[in-house]
Design a protein that fits this description.
- This is DUF1120 domain-containing protein.
- With 220 residues, the chain is mainly β.
- 11% of the residues lie in helices and 34% in strands.
- It has a single domain, classed as Immunoglobulin-like, CATH 2.60.40.
- The longest helix has 18 residues.
- The N and C termini lie far apart (73 Å).
C-alpha cells in the first residue's frame, strides 16, 4: 500500500502539468466609440469692416446687418450619429444683460446673447446673436431643436437661434422633437451684431468689435 500512494500522487500532478502546458489565453477586445464627424465653418471670421459712428444711435442700441457663412458636419462615408453643437462665449464678461431680449423678443434670453468685447476703458461694445439657417440633413430639411440644460428635454427653436453655456442645439428631420441620426448636416451660420448706445462708448479712439465663440461638436 505504501508504494501506491506516491504513484497516485504523481499521477495527479502529471495531469495538472499536462493541462498547464496546453493552456492558451483568449482575449476579447474592441472599442465603443461614436462615429467620427468633422465640423467646418467656411469663413470663421465675420467682419463688419468700418462702421460709421454717424450711423449709430447715442440713446438706443443699433442693429447691424446680418452676415452668414456656410457650415458643414460630415460623419464619414456611411456613419450616422446623433450630434449637437455646444457653444462657449469667450467674451462672456462683455455681455450687456437683456440686450437681445430688447431687440429680438422675450425668447432671446442672455443664453442667446454673445459679448462683443470691451473698449480700453472697459465699456461694453455690444453683442450678437447666432442662428443656424437653411439646415439640411442627408438631403432632407432639418429643424433646430435645443436642450437648454435640462438633460435631454428638447424644445423647438423656430427662431433657429444658437445658444451658449448649458445649451446644446441639434436637428430633427421627423415629427418627433429628438435628435436625428445623420451622416451630413449643412446650412448657414448667421450672425447679427447689435452695438451699444454711443453715449456709453468712448469714440475718440477706434473701437474694435471683438466677439469670439467656440463651437463644439457633441455626440449625443
Amino acid at each position: 500500500m505504501r508504494n501506491k500512494i506516491p504513484a497516485v500522487t504523481f499521477s495527479v500532478l502529471a495531469v495538472f502539468f499536462c493541462l498547464s502546458a496546453q493552456a492558451a489565453d483568449l482575449n476579447v477586445k474592441g472599442y465603443i466609440a461614436p462615429a467620427s464627424c468633422s465640423f467646418t465653418i467656411t469663413n470663421s471670421v465675420i467682419d463688419y469692416g468700418r462702421i460709421d459712428p454717424n450711423t449709430l444711435s447715442p440713446t438706443s442700441y443699433t442693429k447691424l446687418g446680418k452676415k452668414s457663412t456656410p457650415y458643414a458636419i460630415r460623419c464619414g462615408s456611411t456613419a450616422h450619429a446623433k450630434i449637437g453643437v455646444k457653444v462657449v462665449d469667450n467674451r462672456s464678461g462683455s455681455r450687456i444683460a437683456g440686450l437681445m431680449t430688447s431687440q429680438f423678443g422675450s425668447s432671446y434670453r442672455d443664453n442667446y446673447n454673445y459679448g462683443l468685447g470691451a473698449t480700453a476703458k472697459g465699456q461694453k461694445i455690444g453683442g450678437y446673436v447666432v442662428h443656424l439657417r437653411n439646415s439640411v440633413a442627408d438631403g432632407k430639411p432639418a429643424y433646430v431643436i435645443t436642450d437648454e440644460g435640462y438633460g435631454g428635454t428638447w424644445d423647438p427653436r423656430s427662431s433657429e437661434a444658437l445658444g451658449h453655456t448649458a445649451n446644446i442645439s441639434s436637428w430633427r428631420t421627423g415629427a418627433a422633437f429628438t435628435p436625428a441620426q445623420v451622416n451630413t448636416v449643412t446650412g448657414n451660420l448667421e450672425v447679427q451684431a447689435v452695438i451699444n448706445k454711443t453715449a456709453e462708448l468712448d469714440l475718440s479712439n477706434q473701437v474694435n468689435l471683438d466677439g469670439q465663440a467656440t463651437l463644439e461638436l457633441r455626440y449625443l
